[in-house]
Structures are given as C-alpha cells and as structure tokens.
Amino acid sequence: MLTLLTLSISLSLSLSHSFMGIARSSVVVFVIDTTGSMSDDILEAKRVVYEIIDSKKGTQDEPSQYILVPFNDPKFGPLIKTTNPNVMKAEIANLTAEGGGDLPEMCLSGLQLALTGAPASSYIYVFTDAVAKDIELKETIVALIRSTKSTVSFFMTDDGAGARRRRRGVESSEATFETYKDLALASGGQAIRVTKENLPQATDVIIDSSTSALVIVLQRARNPGRAETFSFLLDESLNNITIYITGNTITFTLKNPAGVTQKQNEVNGELGTVQTVGNLFRVRLASNKQTGLWEISMNSNQPYTLKVTGQSTIAFIYDFVETFEGPHPGYALISGRPQAGMPAMLLVSVLGRKGPASVKVADIALVTVSGSEVVGGALEDMGNGKFLVTVTKVPAGEFVVLLNGTDVVSSTVFQRQSTTQMSVSKVTIKAVVDRSMEPGKPFTLPFTVMTNATGGSYKISARNDRDFKMNVPGSIAVTTGGNATGELTITVPANTPSGTDVTLTIEAVAPGASDSNYAVLRLSVVTKVTDFTPPQCEVVSVSSVDCPADPAFCNSAFWQLSANLTDGVNGTGITSLTHRQGVGSLTHTDLKQTVVAAAFNASCCSLTVELVAVDKAMNVGTCLYTTKVTDVTPPQCEVVSVSVVDCPADPAACSSAFWQLSANLTDGVNGTGIASLTHLQGIGSLTHTDLKQMVVAAAFNASCCSLTVELEAVDKAMNVGTCRFSIVRNAGPPSIALSLPLLVCLLVSAFFTTSLRDLLI
C-alpha cells in the first residue's frame, strides 16, 4: 500500500510512535488464554502479571497504558484499556478459565485484536497452553507486526500438555510451537516454553523488555543451528544490558574486550548472571561492563535465536519510502514488503543523548537475520538527525536495519539494530483510501496487484478487525511482469458509531504460495453530515423576578427560566442539553422529542444562564438570558394619625396611659410588593392588613412607657423603607390637666354635698 505523506510529516509521525519508549514509558498489552485447559495455569499467569504491574508502579518505567485482551474458543476479547495499574489488576482478577473444548485455541484472533487496538511500538505478551487454531491468520499477524512495529512475546505452558494433545489427535506442540517462534522472531520478541512452576521465572523477561528507552544492539537467528561467533559493540550510554538466547542443547561462551570469558553453565560469573527459563537463556551483564567489541560464540545444531538489548537514548527509527510527484512532491511511506531485486529508499531518524547533533552516523545497512549478507546504503544527510538511505538492492530473506555511529558525548562507537524483521517480495499490492465509510452503506475499495515475476492466478484474502461483512474476490489474474486491478466491498452495519476505526489487511499470494505481500489500511466510519443547522432555542417565560438589589441578600430569592428547544423537522435531533453559564439546576423533557422543554432554576446570586444544545451532527445552539433587578425603590410609609396622647410627665405612672399610631405603607405600582413589616423600635403591638394589598394599613399600640416607634417594611427586592415617630410627655400640673368630664363630675359632687348639709341643718 502507498500512503501519501511529505517527508516532514512521515518522520514526525514515526517519531511520535517509535520514539515513544524514550519520551515516555511504553504500552504493555497482556493477551491471556481463558479456556478450560488453562485452569491449572491461569492463576500463575495472573500472579506473574500482578508482579510485573507492581514492579513498575511509580517508577520511570511505569507503562503509560495497560491493555488486556482475553481469548477463548470461539470467542475472544473485549479489548480493555486503562492507565490505572490497579484497574488493570482488577480486570485480570476477574478472568476465569472455562470453555474451549479442543485444545487449539483462538490465540491469533486475540493477538490480532491487540495489534489493531494498541498503539504502534507496543509490547505484547501472550500467555497460553495451546497451539493456535486460527493458523490462517498468521500472515495477517505478520503484516500487522511489521506495520505497527510492535514486539510480541509468547509464554507457553505445556507441562504434560503435549502428550494430551497427541492423544487427542492434534498436531504435536513441538511442530506448531514454531508458529509462535516465527511471529516472535519477526517482531523482535521471544517465544518461551515453560512449565507452570517455571512461569514466574519469566517475569524478569517481561520486566526487561517493557522498560523505557529499550534498544536492540544485535539480533540473529540460525535454522538449522551451527557453530558461529557473533561480535557486537557496547557503548558508554547503554545500561541494563541483557542477552537472550532461545533454543535447545545450546552451549555458548561470552567474551568481553579484555578477553575475560564466561560460559552458559556459570550462573554467577565475572561478566554477569545466567538464568535459564524453559528454552531461554537470560544473561544479565554486570553493571561495570566494559565498552568496546564483545563476542559470543554459539554452538548448537538445533535452531536458535540471539538478541542483545539495553537501555539507551541513542536510537533510530526507519520507514521504507518512495518518491511521488505532484504539486507537493515528497516521499510516501510503503506499507508492505519492499520489492525484491529492486533499489529501495529508507527514511531514517536518529536520536542522541543530547539531541541529533550528539551522534555521528557512520553507515546504515540492511543485514540478514539468518545469514551473513550485509547491504550498505548511500547516506544523504537531510539535517536534524534525518537521513535518506538508498540501497541498490534489498537482501533476500528476513533482514533488519543496522546503524553504526559515534556517540559524541562519550566519544565511543555504537551499533543499533531495528527490532522488527522485514523481507522482500516480488508481489506488490497497493490501495489508496480517499474517503471514509458510512454506517449502513457498502464501501468499495479498489486495489492493484503487481508482480515482477511469473504471472498467474493470485489468491486474494482480506480481514478487518471489526468483523464487518466483506465481499472479496477469491483470486485475480496477473500477467507476468504486469498488474491487475480488483475491488472489495465492506458493509458497515447501520448501528456503527461515527468515529469507529477499522483496520483492514489485504493479502495477495502468488501461484503455488511461492510469494506474497500485504497492505494494511486504517479506515474510519463517519456518518455523513446533512444537518448543518444548529438547534433553535426560544425563551418561553421567566418567573416573577424578586432579586434583591443588595447582593448580600441574593441567596434568599430565586428565579426560573422556561425555554423550548428544537432541532427542526429535518434535523438529526438534540443529543445533549447543558448549561454553560449559571449556577443552578437544569431539567428537561426527553431529548428524543421534537420540542424539548427546559427549565432552569437559580438563586439571585446567579443572574445569567446560557443553555447549550448539541445535535447529533455536532451543531451547537445556545440560549443566553440575564435577569435584571428592576425594583430599586424602597417601600413608602405615611403616618395617618396619632391617637389623643395623655402620657404623664412622671415616668413612674407611664404604664397607665396608652397611645396609638396609624400608618399606610406601599411599594408603589411598579414595586415587587411588601414582603415583611415589623417594628424596630418601640415596645408594643403591631397589626396590619394583608401584605399583598397595594396599600398596607398598619396600627401600632403602646403604653406611655415606650414613646418611640420605627416601622420597617422590606419589599421582595430587599429594598427597606422605615417610618419613625415619637410621643412627647405632658409637662403641665395634674390639677390643671383635668379633663372636662372629670370637672363636671366634681362640680356635681360639690353641689350634692352642700344641699345635703342644708337639709341636715
């Protein structure tokens, strides 16, 4: 496949993926067999995973994300992602071993889900006790490994399981375990066979390989095995150097630049420690390692692999590219295998301990993993650590990229190798994705198959990670040295959410299965947008607003807004309704209705609200309203009358005399109305008519012991009006201050007394 990207975009994308182990910790993925045959092993697998998570928690090597993919038979998944290590431990704790039936399981289906769902350059660890039932996915898995540059390691427990499989008529585990070995080797990972009891010893392997800034110094494989000596450079920047050797009946001797040696049976030697886990030797070099040229002499007639790793910020990434013309010429990434027997170009980005300027690149070559062929390339320095490498031909067989240079910081030479293996093909398959897929509609994708070898009928197969229904031609006729076009159709279910990503792998196999190639495409499901009109909002009513002018009293008053919102008859419908401004409570009717009724309630401390309605096409409609304080005038008070006042001058006699004040109070025509009426001064009784009346009549009665009263009226806007009145005591002598009725009474009494005396005389 050809993906059109300019040089700068290509490199920036690659840097973000492949250098993420340097910038931050990597993503760790656990693919775990949960079939019934794992009942004896799953508890131990859980314990191993717990230990791995706990060992990295809170360290600089803590993964940025954990992913879990369980697989059974016939089901597999789901893919579970989290950045919280405790959540991942809880998810793993929920796994149980059950089901399955026959021992081959859907291992590669689970691995495919992991490769398509995890970011590029992830570290994937597969735990199983059985061979793969879905072996037809092998080439798809290889294509995804090469596309994502993720590392896959297998841990297969088989204490006695091989015999059980043979009794059931299933192919021996020794033969089918090669599938896992091939996939691990292609990705730069490990394939380890262990017993359940030895599985915990594999923990160190996972901890080693999932650290940040992990680099490959050397990677080789021999099948069949033979005696051979391999040399490799260790530079000053490398730490935690580990050598991994897989295979059976192997002997080896390790030698440092000073000539000191250590054999495989020396568990604790001068050069490091040797640990054996199943078919794996793990050699951890001592921290006081010497820089310079090391050697390891291997001796075995059985297949074996050799890998030397370490931690360093001196690293590189690469992509195969080809030029393209047009208004914006540049380089296009090639997804798939480069063409056999043809020149090729690579874009290589190098990172040093203090940036690209801190390394000097000497040469970049393609090196076969299983042989000794080295194809050097011509370097063009493009600046900022970027190099365009041109090779006259690409080696036959599996190969890696080898880079040699000098670390300017320490003045030591270094070597680095790519992790993922690549190989050539005489078949090329190209497809260009120029649009997105729509839910409920078939999507047709044309593709082209080319060959520079013998023509014939090329078998076509395709798979997608969403299991969408596809119509794929079984074969396509290609002439010798020619090309042919075909097309496949994917039907996206109507209920597929917009934004769903789909990974599609197309494979073309030459006649007789002599050669093949693949294209990996990333597709997106996007609902076609026909609704460009935002939801409409109409304020229906605002409740009586009694908000006080003084903010100090705002908590005691409330207001409510009612609004109708609609996306129209032809709209996609409102999917969410929230308030962006305003502190209050928002309620609404069912969003599925054509017209949604909303009510917002708030105190007068929050005078503004903005309702935000979003429809299914992501159009946004808003409703902004601000309530105002309109009543700023306090209630008015008018003293209507004061009763006849006969308050004695002597305060001692005050309690025997009384007075009364009558007053009218009003908040005016435009006021909010009187909410309360009290007296602040004066000891007496206050009565009044209904406060809801326009004019409230008040009467205050008090003894002459309380000569002053202050009435206070507060309206619903918290405006305050007062009425103050004082009585003056009577200052005249009591005998003069007699009232007329009393004087008449006294006169009658005197007349009656005189007449009686006269009669008596």
TrEMBL record:
Short name of any one Pfam family annotated for the protein: VWA7_4
First and last residue of the signal peptide: 1-16
Domain VWA7 beta-sandwich: 316-417
Keyword terms, alphabetized: Glycoprotein, Secreted, Signal
The organism's place on the tree of life at top rank: Eukaryota
Occurrences of domain Hemicentin-1-like von Willebrand factor A (ranges): 28-196
Intracellular or extracellular location(s): Secreted
Protein name per its UniProtKB record: von Willebrand factor A domain-containing protein 7
GO cellular component, one term: extracellular region
Domain spans labelled Hemicentin/VWA7 galactose-binding: 215-313
Main location class: secreted
Record domain VWA7 Ig-like: where: 427-526
Organism: Oncorhynchus kisutch (Coho salmon)
Keyword Secreted included in the entry's annotation: yes
Keyword Magnesium included in the entry's annotation: no
